[in-house]
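=== RUN LOG ===
request id: a7f3
mode: sequence -> structure
chains: 1
length: 59
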Amino acid sequence: MARACSVHFVMKRERLTVALNGATLIEAALLPGAPAKGPIGLQRHSDPTQDGHVCVEGL
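=== RESULT ===
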């Protein structure tokens, strides 16, 4: 059985921070031209995944 994990994405203007299980993986990476609004997409490769709880909050 796969271990549950927690992934947090924070997008502020053109800066992205990503944390996995509380550990920051990417901090304030600059993404020039990132749109202020738009869809959020989740991408899966060949490994099976489960999205048990997805929450989107405004900052």
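=== NOTES ===
The two ends are 34 Å apart (CA to CA).
Residues 1 and 20 are 19 Å apart (CA to CA).
=== END ===
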